[in-house]
Structure prediction request, 318 residues.
Amino acid sequence: MSYVLGIDGGGSKTVCILMDDLRQVLGRGEAGPSNYQSIGIEATLQSIQSAIQNAFEAAIITNTIKIDAICLGLAGVGRAADIEVVKGLFEELQNHKLLVIWALQPENIVICNDAFIALVGGIGQPVGIVVAAGTGSIVFGRNHQGHTKRVGGWGYILGDEGSAYKIAIAGMNAALQSHDGREMSTSLIEGFKQHLDLENIEDLIEVVYRREWGVKQIAALAPVVDLAAASGDIVANIIIDDAVKELVKATSTVINAIFSADSVLEVVTTGSVWRGRCKIHERFAASLVKKFPNVNVIFPRYEPAYGAGLLALQTTQI
Prediction:
């Protein structure tokens, strides 16, 4: 029996699964964030170590176990230099006290970005496209030949079109422009006032600037726009339609880059944006399928950490 570890390291939490060679999950553990770009190497190492330990505890394993492969799918790992950093991090991890006997060859250590493991986990195989739209956004695809294409993922200043952050910003912009008389009337004014318990919409200044809100706090306001759109607000629906157009454009770019226009493939959608009430998922699917009739848009079959486990397991079967 072979055992592998799949690590999903993101900006908010780290998930580890312990999997056997029958694809069965024996244990699952969570810990803090592990985006080394934002929290540093030491904090990332601690989170990964804790997630592994918690997975072993969930599996009720008290004796050491031999690990034949590992996949670390981490946020912020997009360049060759990032992979070298994570390699060093993993070498240090092997020196920490865990219930692990590392039986690894270089080919059994997979280091990749979190979009790839979201693709593999979401579809159940390493071929297709993932459209991630949460706080940020990115589209990532891989074809049968192993060619990959990434679109977006440039962060809230340089990109993230179609993300919760950009939807929330567009919503606040529209509400304030309506208040000024520059935009048509919209229920977004009352929506933000009620959600944030404001006396008037001008108090957004105090909320956004004086409270020094960051990206995540602002992105959390996207449901205000979603609810207004679901209720039929014209301005909110324009914002949602714009988000859909950007996500369809990014996905189309990936399809055209590494697939043929008539390819039969699955596109998995992940992230908070897709869980809205305004049927953004249905709008996206309808628009994409209109351009590419053989595409099937789905919700994830498995979580990203499971995808990392599958990628690790694949290295033991070559």
